[in-house]
Amino acid sequence: MFFDFSFKSSVLFVFFFHGFVFSILLLIKGLQSGNKSSIWLSAAVFLSVLYILPFMCGYGGWYARLPYRDVLYYVPFQQLFLIPPVLYIYTKSLLDKSFVLTPKEYIHFIPAAIYLVYSFIIFYTDKIIIKDYYYYQDGKDKDFSAWYQISGFISLFYYLLLSLKVYNKYKSLSYQMVSFADAIRFNWIKRFLFAFLLLLGLRALFFILNPEWDKFGSKFWYYLCVAVLFYYISISGYVTHLKSVIPLNTASIFLQDDADKNEVPTEDINKNQEPETVDLELKDFQQLKVQIEQVMTTDKVFKNPELTLLDVSHRINVTTKRVSQVINQGFGMNFNDFVNHYRTLEVIELLHTDRLVHFTLLGIALECGFNSKSTFNRAFKKQTRLTPKAYLEKINLKNGAKS
């Protein structure tokens, strides 16, 4: 097969090959584990491989020779209406393990389907009816038409906004529903969304700073940057998939349309059912507040590192909606901060004993329900305005002064 391995075509070929391999690896891993997010990321990486293919082959001499030129002309490799919604669906499936593509969401793929029909009409007209270059008589690939490239940019911007909206909703609900919100706000999704934003920025800069953006030869550095960006996404996404499966077991409750629904899916948290609804109007608000405090101070349920709002609601036989309402309004905190408040108080109490003789500071934090050093440090400083180390030094200084 003819291919001119020049510097530009060879560099893009390296990223093309690795991207293709990682799209297959992600697909296999997703099918084996049943992880939908890995499958969607595989699709995104594969589409990015197709995105750079015309330029890789173009620098390899395909546009100058038949039948290779016809392949680049008539096959719509650059799916600018498909890549953005796939990245968006990947974000949703990553944050919600129970995510299923519903008929309602098929609307996201309508523009891509229309463009495929448009591409087929061009092919059928030129190669079957006229049997000559009618649509392609100007010798320019229609994938690089200004209207299509600009529309693709708008689509990318729109789906980035949707993805950010999903993540913000996930983050907000996680603080209201679980006591380990920091652990499930894994850094990969933030890095991925930043890469998404960077991709948008690259396209914007390319349009603005390159006055000859529509000319084939002047696009190499842009496509090299895109190739590097998707190469990073494919590798990091593959590794993160291996690390993030367990934390995502609780994600199905975070993307509810209404955070105040009385019935919260519990299959990903535990096998218990939602307790019978108790009408809050028949209960005194302060009494319910005391019950919640008692669960924390007497039962010390905060020592469970995977404590959820549902667990507390079972303890006092009140719906999660009511418990959340009392914690938010009665204590002025979300559930995550509320539980960490009691965990911090317990740590402080133990620091004033001889517990440090037998345990490290981190060991005490883990005993009190914290699941990581970073979460402990952040919660401790938020409440005391001191780092755990600084607080301990303050205690030792006081004890030294007394002695």
TrEMBL record:
Keywords, in A-Z order: DNA-binding, Membrane, Transcription, Transcription regulation, Transmembrane, Transmembrane helix
The answer to whether keyword Kinase applies is no
Q: Key word Disulfide bond present in the record? A: no
Q: Please report the stretch or stretches of sequence annotated as the HTH araC/xylS-type domain.
A: 286-394
Query: Can you tell me which residues the record assigns to a coiled coil?
Result: none
Superkingdom is Bacteria
Matching entries from SMART domains are given as: HTH_ARAC
* Listed InterPro entries: Homeodomain-like_sf, HTH_AraC
What Pfam families does the database record attribute to this sequence? HTH_18
Transmembrane residue ranges: 6-28, 40-65, 71-90, 106-125, 145-167, 188-208, 220-239
User: Which protein is depicted?
Assistant: Helix-turn-helix domain-containing protein
The species is Pedobacter rhodius
